[in-house]
Input
Amino acid sequence: MPELPDVEGFRRLAREAAGRRIEGVDVLDGTLLRGGRGSTIVGERFGDPRRHGKWLIFPAGDAEVLMHFGMTGRLDWGRRDSGRHRHDRIVFVCRGGELRYRNMRKFGGVWISKRGRERVTGPLGPDAAEVDCGRFHDLLGRRRGGIKAALMDQKLIAGLGNLMVDEVAWRARVNPRAQVARLSRRRIDRLWEAMDEVVRDSVPTGRVPPAEGWLTGARDAREPTCPRCGMRLRRTTVAGRTTVWCPRCQRR
DNA sequence: GCTCATGTTCCCCT
DNA sequence: CAGGGGAACATGAG
Output
């Protein structure tokens, strides 16, 4: 699930814990605490949660809790006496409630770190919500290869995942296999406009809306059709990922 | 039993 | 070095 809008939703939820004292960290599955120790932040207070790309950054005292959600991670806030989920892996027990890091497939994880966060996250490009049209042109300017691979690359732009990239390419009417170097200035403009729209419209929802008029609302149907032209959508592999696109709207 | 899954990383090619 | 393909990771859901 988690791409930029999902993590933005988790950030809003994490605000429940902001300002609260951390009374304990329950490490229910040690393999998901990928760095640091819970004891580092026990007794500290959570600060204001931030997000960069698909990373949630949660200050706690002079340390940071860094969370990545892989494909099946999420966050939950609940009363300390309410039942936990079987896939809750790490629980931050606070005064007045607890924040639960849940993850079924166990990709991703939690790091508790006092050192530079880039050592954990690796190099990340600017967050997709902060990239203006000029910057977008700069970033794609020296890029070779396919547009889908480029937009999925977190080192180039952080936050876009498989669903969002398909949505952006579909809105911009760009074939996901198109070579970046061969895209016209106008097409790059259209891609940026689509990215900006998709980001702004999905952030309040906390997910890429599987709604009418969105590719995301059509892609999982038995026989998916294009919300714009009604053509049967294609499903192929591009840049190693399942890709849904419209052969009429997104010609090569 | 089989296929597929919203992410990342590593290895091997070109 | 840049990029692409494929596998691996772990655990379901359909």
Q: What stands out?
A: The longest helix of chain A spans residues 185-202. Chain A has a mean pLDDT of 95.
